[in-house]
Design brief:
Blueprint: H1 2-36, H2 40-53, H3 58-70, H4 74-87, H5 92-104, H6 108-120, H7 128-137, H8 141-154, H9 160-171, H10 175-188, H11 193-205, H12 209-221, H13 228-240, H14 244-257, H15 262-274, H16 278-291, H17 296-309, H18 312-325
Helix pairs in contact: 1-2, 1-3, 2-3, 3-4, 4-5, 5-6, 6-7, 7-8, 8-9, 9-10, 10-11, 11-12, 11-13, 12-13, 13-14, 14-15, 15-16, 16-17, 17-18
Length: 341
Protein backbone atom coordinates (compact mmCIF):
# COMPACT_ATOMS: atom_id res chain seq x y z
CA UNK A 1 0.00 0.00 0.00
CA UNK A 2 2.78 2.39 0.92
CA UNK A 3 4.52 1.62 -2.36
CA UNK A 4 1.34 2.44 -4.27
CA UNK A 5 0.98 5.75 -2.46
CA UNK A 6 4.58 6.61 -3.28
CA UNK A 7 4.06 5.77 -6.95
CA UNK A 8 0.89 7.85 -7.10
CA UNK A 9 2.69 10.78 -5.42
CA UNK A 10 5.52 10.61 -7.95
CA UNK A 11 3.03 10.53 -10.79
CA UNK A 12 1.27 13.59 -9.34
CA UNK A 13 4.55 15.48 -9.06
CA UNK A 14 5.49 14.65 -12.64
CA UNK A 15 2.05 15.68 -13.90
CA UNK A 16 2.20 18.93 -11.92
CA UNK A 17 5.68 19.71 -13.27
CA UNK A 18 4.51 18.95 -16.78
CA UNK A 19 1.50 21.20 -16.32
CA UNK A 20 3.74 23.94 -14.99
CA UNK A 21 6.04 23.61 -17.97
CA UNK A 22 3.11 23.62 -20.37
CA UNK A 23 1.84 26.83 -18.76
CA UNK A 24 5.27 28.44 -18.99
CA UNK A 25 5.56 27.46 -22.64
CA UNK A 26 2.05 28.78 -23.33
CA UNK A 27 2.74 32.20 -21.83
CA UNK A 28 6.20 32.39 -23.37
CA UNK A 29 4.63 31.90 -26.79
CA UNK A 30 2.01 34.53 -26.03
CA UNK A 31 4.71 36.95 -24.91
CA UNK A 32 6.85 36.34 -27.98
CA UNK A 33 3.92 36.83 -30.37
CA UNK A 34 2.81 40.07 -28.67
CA UNK A 35 6.36 41.38 -28.58
CA UNK A 36 6.79 40.68 -32.30
CA UNK A 37 3.73 42.90 -32.90
CA UNK A 38 5.24 45.54 -30.57
CA UNK A 39 2.34 45.10 -28.18
CA UNK A 40 4.52 45.63 -25.16
CA UNK A 41 1.96 45.61 -22.37
CA UNK A 42 0.30 42.29 -23.38
CA UNK A 43 3.78 40.83 -23.91
CA UNK A 44 4.86 42.05 -20.46
CA UNK A 45 1.80 40.51 -18.82
CA UNK A 46 2.36 37.20 -20.61
CA UNK A 47 6.01 36.98 -19.60
CA UNK A 48 5.08 37.99 -16.06
CA UNK A 49 2.53 35.18 -15.98
CA UNK A 50 5.20 32.76 -17.17
CA UNK A 51 7.47 33.77 -14.27
CA UNK A 52 4.63 33.07 -11.84
CA UNK A 53 4.90 29.42 -12.87
CA UNK A 54 8.70 29.35 -13.00
CA UNK A 55 10.52 32.27 -11.43
CA UNK A 56 13.91 30.99 -12.56
CA UNK A 57 13.10 30.60 -16.23
CA UNK A 58 15.69 32.74 -18.03
CA UNK A 59 13.57 33.28 -21.14
CA UNK A 60 10.57 34.42 -19.12
CA UNK A 61 12.66 36.73 -16.93
CA UNK A 62 14.41 38.28 -19.92
CA UNK A 63 11.13 38.77 -21.77
CA UNK A 64 9.51 40.39 -18.74
CA UNK A 65 12.51 42.65 -18.12
CA UNK A 66 12.81 43.67 -21.78
CA UNK A 67 9.12 44.53 -22.00
CA UNK A 68 9.27 46.44 -18.70
CA UNK A 69 12.12 48.45 -20.20
CA UNK A 70 10.06 49.19 -23.32
CA UNK A 71 7.20 50.33 -21.09
CA UNK A 72 9.61 52.46 -19.03
CA UNK A 73 8.90 50.44 -15.91
CA UNK A 74 12.51 51.00 -15.00
CA UNK A 75 12.43 49.78 -11.40
CA UNK A 76 10.60 46.58 -12.40
CA UNK A 77 13.05 46.07 -15.26
CA UNK A 78 15.99 46.56 -12.91
CA UNK A 79 14.72 44.09 -10.32
CA UNK A 80 13.83 41.52 -12.98
CA UNK A 81 17.26 41.79 -14.60
CA UNK A 82 18.74 41.19 -11.13
CA UNK A 83 16.83 37.90 -10.95
CA UNK A 84 18.01 37.03 -14.44
CA UNK A 85 21.61 37.76 -13.47
CA UNK A 86 21.29 35.29 -10.61
CA UNK A 87 20.27 32.70 -13.19
CA UNK A 88 22.92 33.78 -15.75
CA UNK A 89 25.78 35.14 -13.63
CA UNK A 90 28.36 35.15 -16.45
CA UNK A 91 26.37 37.31 -18.87
CA UNK A 92 28.54 40.45 -19.23
CA UNK A 93 26.01 42.15 -21.51
CA UNK A 94 23.38 41.72 -18.83
CA UNK A 95 25.71 43.20 -16.19
CA UNK A 96 26.24 46.23 -18.41
CA UNK A 97 22.51 46.66 -19.02
CA UNK A 98 21.80 46.33 -15.32
CA UNK A 99 24.49 48.92 -14.51
CA UNK A 100 22.85 51.41 -16.88
CA UNK A 101 19.43 50.72 -15.39
CA UNK A 102 20.74 51.30 -11.90
CA UNK A 103 22.09 54.66 -13.03
CA UNK A 104 18.73 55.60 -14.59
CA UNK A 105 16.99 54.72 -11.34
CA UNK A 106 19.56 56.66 -9.28
CA UNK A 107 21.16 53.63 -7.64
CA UNK A 108 24.60 55.12 -8.07
CA UNK A 109 26.67 52.94 -5.73
CA UNK A 110 25.14 49.83 -7.26
CA UNK A 111 26.02 51.24 -10.68
CA UNK A 112 29.67 51.51 -9.68
CA UNK A 113 29.59 48.02 -8.16
CA UNK A 114 28.24 46.54 -11.39
CA UNK A 115 30.83 48.38 -13.49
CA UNK A 116 33.53 46.88 -11.32
CA UNK A 117 31.88 43.47 -11.64
CA UNK A 118 31.83 43.77 -15.43
CA UNK A 119 35.53 44.60 -15.44
CA UNK A 120 36.38 41.56 -13.34
CA UNK A 121 34.37 39.47 -15.79
CA UNK A 122 36.55 40.77 -18.63
CA UNK A 123 33.97 43.04 -20.27
CA UNK A 124 35.45 45.17 -23.06
CA UNK A 125 32.61 47.71 -22.94
CA UNK A 126 33.49 51.35 -22.22
CA UNK A 127 31.80 51.63 -18.83
CA UNK A 128 34.16 54.27 -17.43
CA UNK A 129 31.87 57.11 -18.54
CA UNK A 130 28.93 55.45 -16.79
CA UNK A 131 31.01 55.08 -13.64
CA UNK A 132 32.13 58.70 -13.90
CA UNK A 133 28.56 59.97 -13.95
CA UNK A 134 27.65 57.77 -10.99
CA UNK A 135 30.63 59.04 -9.01
CA UNK A 136 29.65 62.62 -9.86
CA UNK A 137 26.12 62.10 -8.54
CA UNK A 138 27.61 60.67 -5.34
CA UNK A 139 29.94 63.73 -5.08
CA UNK A 140 33.05 61.54 -5.34
CA UNK A 141 34.79 64.08 -7.55
CA UNK A 142 38.27 62.56 -7.50
CA UNK A 143 36.97 59.16 -8.61
CA UNK A 144 34.79 60.87 -11.19
CA UNK A 145 37.80 62.61 -12.75
CA UNK A 146 39.79 59.36 -12.78
CA UNK A 147 36.97 57.60 -14.62
CA UNK A 148 36.56 60.47 -17.08
CA UNK A 149 40.25 60.32 -17.89
CA UNK A 150 39.95 56.60 -18.69
CA UNK A 151 36.78 57.11 -20.72
CA UNK A 152 38.31 60.05 -22.61
CA UNK A 153 41.19 57.90 -23.83
CA UNK A 154 38.68 55.55 -25.43
CA UNK A 155 36.34 58.21 -26.84
CA UNK A 156 37.19 61.91 -26.90
CA UNK A 157 34.08 62.99 -28.80
CA UNK A 158 31.63 63.27 -25.89
CA UNK A 159 31.24 66.92 -24.87
CA UNK A 160 29.67 65.99 -21.54
CA UNK A 161 32.97 64.49 -20.36
CA UNK A 162 34.97 67.73 -20.10
CA UNK A 163 31.79 69.49 -18.93
CA UNK A 164 31.39 67.12 -15.98
CA UNK A 165 35.13 67.40 -15.33
CA UNK A 166 34.69 71.19 -15.18
CA UNK A 167 31.90 70.79 -12.66
CA UNK A 168 34.13 68.54 -10.54
CA UNK A 169 36.91 71.13 -10.51
CA UNK A 170 34.36 73.82 -9.61
CA UNK A 171 33.29 71.75 -6.60
CA UNK A 172 36.94 71.50 -5.57
CA UNK A 173 37.50 75.26 -6.08
CA UNK A 174 40.04 74.69 -8.85
CA UNK A 175 38.68 77.35 -11.18
CA UNK A 176 41.58 77.48 -13.62
CA UNK A 177 41.33 73.76 -14.39
CA UNK A 178 37.55 74.10 -14.59
CA UNK A 179 37.80 76.94 -17.09
CA UNK A 180 40.05 74.88 -19.35
CA UNK A 181 37.59 71.99 -19.23
CA UNK A 182 34.70 74.29 -20.13
CA UNK A 183 36.59 75.51 -23.17
CA UNK A 184 37.27 71.91 -24.20
CA UNK A 185 33.58 71.04 -23.79
CA UNK A 186 32.47 74.05 -25.85
CA UNK A 187 34.82 73.11 -28.69
CA UNK A 188 32.85 69.86 -28.92
CA UNK A 189 29.47 71.60 -28.48
CA UNK A 190 30.02 75.11 -29.88
CA UNK A 191 26.40 76.27 -29.60
CA UNK A 192 25.91 75.53 -25.91
CA UNK A 193 25.30 79.02 -24.50
CA UNK A 194 24.71 77.69 -20.99
CA UNK A 195 28.25 76.28 -20.88
CA UNK A 196 29.58 79.57 -22.25
CA UNK A 197 27.93 81.38 -19.35
CA UNK A 198 29.40 78.90 -16.87
CA UNK A 199 32.84 79.38 -18.46
CA UNK A 200 32.45 83.14 -18.05
CA UNK A 201 31.48 82.76 -14.41
CA UNK A 202 34.41 80.43 -13.80
CA UNK A 203 36.93 82.86 -15.26
CA UNK A 204 35.33 85.60 -13.17
CA UNK A 205 35.81 83.46 -10.04
CA UNK A 206 39.56 83.06 -10.67
CA UNK A 207 39.35 86.18 -11.03
CA UNK A 208 40.23 86.77 -14.68
CA UNK A 209 37.70 89.23 -16.04
CA UNK A 210 39.69 89.75 -19.24
CA UNK A 211 38.92 86.16 -20.23
CA UNK A 212 35.47 86.12 -18.64
CA UNK A 213 34.07 88.99 -20.71
CA UNK A 214 34.44 87.29 -24.14
CA UNK A 215 32.54 84.27 -22.86
CA UNK A 216 29.69 86.46 -21.63
CA UNK A 217 29.62 88.06 -25.08
CA UNK A 218 29.70 84.68 -26.85
CA UNK A 219 26.90 83.35 -24.63
CA UNK A 220 24.66 86.29 -25.55
CA UNK A 221 25.53 85.94 -29.24
CA UNK A 222 24.63 82.23 -29.00
CA UNK A 223 21.19 83.09 -27.62
CA UNK A 224 21.56 82.99 -23.85
CA UNK A 225 18.60 84.76 -22.19
CA UNK A 226 19.26 88.25 -20.83
CA UNK A 227 18.25 87.16 -17.34
CA UNK A 228 18.83 89.38 -14.32
CA UNK A 229 21.58 87.15 -12.96
CA UNK A 230 23.33 86.95 -16.32
CA UNK A 231 23.31 90.70 -16.87
CA UNK A 232 24.39 91.50 -13.33
CA UNK A 233 27.30 89.07 -13.50
CA UNK A 234 28.24 90.40 -16.93
CA UNK A 235 28.17 93.95 -15.54
CA UNK A 236 30.30 92.87 -12.58
CA UNK A 237 32.94 91.55 -14.97
CA UNK A 238 33.00 94.80 -16.91
CA UNK A 239 33.24 96.63 -13.58
CA UNK A 240 36.09 94.37 -12.44
CA UNK A 241 37.89 95.11 -15.70
CA UNK A 242 37.29 98.86 -15.20
CA UNK A 243 35.12 99.07 -18.30
CA UNK A 244 32.60 101.26 -16.55
CA UNK A 245 31.07 102.58 -19.77
CA UNK A 246 29.86 99.01 -20.39
CA UNK A 247 28.93 98.05 -16.83
CA UNK A 248 26.65 101.09 -16.42
CA UNK A 249 24.04 100.22 -19.11
CA UNK A 250 23.87 96.61 -17.90
CA UNK A 251 23.26 97.65 -14.29
CA UNK A 252 20.63 100.10 -15.53
CA UNK A 253 18.90 97.36 -17.53
CA UNK A 254 18.61 95.10 -14.49
CA UNK A 255 17.47 97.99 -12.30
CA UNK A 256 14.52 98.54 -14.60
CA UNK A 257 13.29 95.16 -13.38
CA UNK A 258 14.64 95.40 -9.81
CA UNK A 259 14.46 99.12 -9.01
CA UNK A 260 14.97 98.71 -5.26
CA UNK A 261 17.93 96.32 -5.39
CA UNK A 262 20.42 97.99 -3.04
CA UNK A 263 23.43 96.01 -4.27
CA UNK A 264 22.74 96.95 -7.86
CA UNK A 265 22.31 100.60 -6.95
CA UNK A 266 25.57 100.59 -5.02
CA UNK A 267 27.45 98.98 -7.91
CA UNK A 268 25.92 101.39 -10.41
CA UNK A 269 26.94 104.30 -8.17
CA UNK A 270 30.51 102.99 -8.04
CA UNK A 271 30.57 102.62 -11.83
CA UNK A 272 29.50 106.23 -12.20
CA UNK A 273 32.04 107.34 -9.62
CA UNK A 274 35.01 105.53 -11.14
CA UNK A 275 34.03 106.66 -14.65
CA UNK A 276 34.40 110.24 -13.43
CA UNK A 277 30.71 111.11 -13.04
CA UNK A 278 30.48 112.03 -9.36
CA UNK A 279 27.10 113.76 -9.67
CA UNK A 280 25.44 110.66 -11.16
CA UNK A 281 27.08 108.58 -8.44
CA UNK A 282 25.66 110.80 -5.70
CA UNK A 283 22.22 110.69 -7.30
CA UNK A 284 22.34 106.88 -7.43
CA UNK A 285 23.47 106.48 -3.82
CA UNK A 286 20.76 108.96 -2.76
CA UNK A 287 18.25 106.49 -4.26
CA UNK A 288 19.65 103.88 -1.89
CA UNK A 289 19.08 106.16 1.08
CA UNK A 290 15.53 106.86 -0.06
CA UNK A 291 14.90 103.12 0.18
CA UNK A 292 16.91 102.57 3.38
CA UNK A 293 18.26 105.62 5.28
CA UNK A 294 20.55 103.34 7.31
CA UNK A 295 22.76 102.46 4.33
CA UNK A 296 25.97 103.78 5.89
CA UNK A 297 28.14 102.72 2.95
CA UNK A 298 26.03 104.90 0.64
CA UNK A 299 26.49 107.86 2.99
CA UNK A 300 30.24 107.24 3.06
CA UNK A 301 30.52 107.02 -0.72
CA UNK A 302 28.47 110.20 -1.16
CA UNK A 303 30.99 111.86 1.13
CA UNK A 304 33.86 110.52 -0.98
CA UNK A 305 32.14 111.79 -4.12
CA UNK A 306 31.85 115.30 -2.65
CA UNK A 307 35.55 115.23 -1.76
CA UNK A 308 36.24 114.16 -5.34
CA UNK A 309 34.27 117.20 -6.51
CA UNK A 310 36.38 119.46 -4.29
CA UNK A 311 33.79 119.96 -1.55
CA UNK A 312 36.08 118.60 1.16
CA UNK A 313 34.26 119.81 4.27
CA UNK A 314 30.87 118.53 3.18
CA UNK A 315 32.42 115.26 2.10
CA UNK A 316 34.38 114.70 5.31
CA UNK A 317 31.31 115.42 7.43
CA UNK A 318 29.36 112.80 5.54
CA UNK A 319 32.17 110.28 5.88
CA UNK A 320 32.31 110.86 9.64
CA UNK A 321 28.55 110.50 9.84
CA UNK A 322 28.77 107.17 7.99
CA UNK A 323 31.47 105.91 10.37
CA UNK A 324 29.26 106.75 13.34
CA UNK A 325 26.49 104.74 11.68
CA UNK A 326 28.85 101.84 10.93
CA UNK A 327 32.25 101.91 12.71
CA UNK A 328 33.63 99.22 10.38
CA UNK A 329 33.83 101.88 7.66
CA UNK A 330 36.65 103.59 9.57
CA UNK A 331 39.16 101.29 7.88
CA UNK A 332 38.40 102.99 4.57
CA UNK A 333 39.87 106.29 5.82
CA UNK A 334 43.35 104.89 5.29
CA UNK A 335 42.56 103.69 1.78
CA UNK A 336 42.08 106.94 -0.07
CA UNK A 337 43.96 105.65 -3.09
CA UNK A 338 41.16 103.19 -3.84
CA UNK A 339 38.88 106.16 -4.44
CA UNK A 340 41.39 108.01 -6.58
CA UNK A 341 41.91 110.71 -3.97
Amino acid sequence: MKQLITILACIAVVQFARAQQDSVSHYLQQGEEAASRRQFLPAYNAYKQATSFDDSNAEALKGMADMALELRYYVIARETYKKLLAVSPKDTLLVRQLAELNFQTRQFQETVNLVQQARTMGSKANLDWLAARAYYEMEHYGSCLESIEKAWKKDSSIAQMPFIAARCYIEMNNYRRAAGCYEQAIRLDPTNNKWMYEAAMTYSAIPDEVRAIPWFEKALAAGHPRSNDFLENFANSYYGNKQFDKSIPLYQEVLQRKPQDLELLFSLGESYYYSGNADQAIETWDKMLAIDPQQARAVYMIGIAYIKKGEDNKGKDLCEKAIRMDPSLAKLKEKKSMFGL
